[in-house]
Each structure stands twice: as C-alpha cells, then as structure tokens.
Write a structure and sequence with these properties.
Elements: E1 12-16, H1 20-30, E2 35-39, H2 42-51, E3 56-59, H3 68-77, E4 86-90, H4 95-103, E5 108-111, H5 116-153
Helix pairs in contact: 2-3
Length: 154
Amino acid sequence: MSEVLDFTQKATILVVDDAAENLTLMHGLLKDTYDTKLANSGERALRIAEASPPGLVLLDIMMPDMDGYEVCRRLKENAKTRAIPVIFLTAKSEVEDEQRGFDIGAVDYITKPVSPPIVLARVKTHLTLKAAMDYLRDKNVFLEAEAARRARKA
C-alpha cells in the first residue's frame, strides 16, 4: 500500500510586514494549518530566521529601514537560511519589481490584496518542494558516504 506523505503539516511560516493588520490577516489565514512567527521589521525577521529557520518566509517589500529585497538578499547570503523559500507578498505590481524579487532568490511573488486560496496553495506547493529538495539532499549525502565507505572496503 502506498502512503502519501504531507510534508507541509505544522511547518513554520515567518510572516514579515511592517503593517500590523497584514500580520494579523496572514496569521489568521495560516494559523490552522501552520505555526506562524511574525516580524514587523527586516532586522527582526533576520534574527528570527537565524535563530530558528522557518520552513518558508512570506515577505513584504515596502518596509522602513530595510526593505524586503534586502531581507531576501541577506537570507540568501547566509548558509543557515539560504534554503528557506521566500515568497514576496506585496503591493508592488510592476513586472520590474517581480523580476527583481526572482533575481535575488524569491521562489514566488504574490500581489496584494491577496486571495486566501492562492496564498494557501502557493505556500503548500513551496513547502512540498522544499521538503522534497531537503529529502534528496539528505539522501545524496547518505549515498556519497555509503559509496566512500564501500570504496574504503574494496
């Protein structure tokens, strides 16, 4: 019997937005399926992600002090956080803004106002992809170690 594994259950989602109402909205949307952490600034988001890397980051672009592009860039520079998928969740809707987000490492880009079913579907998709990538990476490390062990025995 084949068992379907759902890698997205109770994953942690870090939501980053300077507007309290947006944090409240996203927490309300995600809380029944995921654990949520909320950050109202880029600096706070980076501290949270470094201390306990989430499964995914939903990141606003337009924030004071440090914008979302800079937060994403720093996440991707850090070995501990670079594999975390980042989805921009923003009011910036120009093609150039979206392209810039992808260029610095985002996996998706959702414009506000958001459609809850779309946000949930994309979050689930990217968490599933990350789980598969993590599994393959771990399997590869195991197989390389096993090949090295067998080569030493030969």
